[in-house]
Amino acid sequence: MKKILILKGISQYNVLRYAADAIASGFKDLGCQVKVIGFHAADDFDVALREIMGEYDLIFSFQALFFDYKLEDNTFLYNNISTPVFGYIVDHPSYHHERLSAELNSNVYLGCIDNKHVSYIRRYYPGIKNVFYIPHAGFESKERIPFEKKDIDLFFPGTYTPSLSYVEAINQLPDIFCKTAYKIIEYMQNDLTVTLEGALEVYFNSIGFNCSIDEFRELMVMLLPVDGYIRSFYRDLCIHTLLENGIHVTVAGNGWREFITSYSENLNVISDKGIDIENVIELIGRSKIVLNVIPTYKEGLHERLITGMHCNAVSLTHSSTSIEKFFKNKENIVIFDLNNTDQLPYIVNDLLTDVNKSKEIAIKGCSIAAGNHKWSDRARDILNICCNI
């Protein structure tokens, strides 16, 4: 029996704390003995350090907790143990720059939710020896509501930040970096397959500029408002297009009171303060269609997409390499083109009108999620990587 330690940090809407509990259950389903330590107070930190030095077969955390933590002798904590350590990050690596800059031994592993993130880490963070693509899993609702009895037509769960907020952040950059940011935005909007780092590399090549790996990493951190802008721009575009064409959209997450529209009668804001993930899952369970808009994921899956499937909803999303690999359009998922969002209202109207077709898509999507994208599946993936199980 493998003995697993799970470190559970703090996260927005408690999503990653909930996921930590879910993957803990997944490890238990596979016959492992699991101990979970959560961080609520300063004392929890000391408890975690003591446990990390204990006898475990695997230490797991979301967001690569303690990757950059140093002991009094200035050595990295995880370099002082032989236990396999697996960190699972759910954002672009640049959001975790400090942690990933550590020079760690080969007992440390990193999982990413996007294959492009894997490539980026292998090139720009050589201190991380082992990095793997681990797709997101999803959550199941406590109650499985029949499709025809769901009372929310279309639900988008997620934070709203106005694009202008990111524009203001970009405009405060030094002039040369501000100009670089807008050039990168242009590249990324002209070709939706291009990543932030890919656009930066193309731009540097076009002007004949060379920099070191460390300099490139620092520039990527500086240019993260571009990542936020791209995400916000396309969320704005999709939601506005739906509202303007009479589609009723339900949203929940921080910031939605700042969303400006002339069609507010079509927008149902459940909460603009953010609600706990358990309540979000309940809302997804009541929804016929769950919208996914996260254009900065080029070769990955997002949790809301999989959760929508687990909850017997139609997952409506733009494409990515992983989506095309795991799912089939109009059979178990519905894919729209971010370059042609004018078609989005027609797609939604068709799904809401042809209930039998939508119900069939939802059922098939639920079947695939149940068969391949539970947290126990991710736990098995991690054990295969770290413990050869």
From TrEMBL:
Superkingdom in the source lineage: Bacteria
Domain Spore protein YkvP/CgeB glycosyl transferase-like, chain residue ranges per copy: 238-384
Keyword annotations from UniProtKB, A to Z: Transferase
GO molecular function, one term: transferase activity
Record lineage: Bacteria, Bacillati, Bacillota, Clostridia, Lachnospirales
Record keyword Transferase present: yes
Database matches in InterPro entries: YkvP/CgeB_Glyco_trans-like (IPR055259)
Name under which the protein is recorded: Glycosyltransferase
